[in-house]
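Q: What structure does this chain adopt?
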Amino acid sequence: MEKKELARIRLCGVTIHDLTLDEAVEAALEKRGEPCFAVTPNALMLEACRKCSDSAALLNRATLSLPDGAGVLLAAKRQKTPLRARVAGIEFGEALLRRAAEEGLRVFLLGGKAGVAQRAAERLEARFPGLSVCGSYWGYFERTDEEDRALCDHIRACRPDLLFVCFGFPTQEKWIAEHLDRLSALRVVAGLGGSLDVWAGDVRRAPAPLSRLGLEWAWRMLLQPKRLKKLPAIVRFVVRGGK
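A:
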């Protein structure tokens, strides 16, 4: 039976799939003989892609591209290609973790400062009974061929089904794209930005009311004022839309 093609739109030259959270999880876990490479573009990422075709091409290598942020939904609506739902990267990751706990899938966490991935693993295993985080590694390792090979060997030895890479855009997407052929036994490899810091308890997510209003970006800037320098890029993206 021929597989149904996923509904999609284009924003700033980047393919975005029009899926709900549940549909995204099903699409990610679908057996296809090769890993699902998942990305979660937000307004800042798409604004960067508007300026840099290489960044857009990098995101377009992904199997699954999910709209992370109210700004992405607003841009899609303004260009008359509305999306049905926002799929935040951290929520996508947590939905995958829930399924992993239910189905006995193994997870590897990669990223963060020293100790962050391990603390995140411990908290996630307590939160999702039955979850197996089979390995973790920090994100500030030397990006040499030798260490990359050793890391890929280590990941393969842990036999994960899911790998979450949390270096931030575009570093995590570049690393995944360059190493996917060494990790062919995985089912899902997802770039999830700062999710590990939240899961480790080092960073708080926005309160639910702010999240529902699409104001998580404002919450992050309140907690981390240095992020204010990114505000003009967010405004430019919203004003220009996704063209």
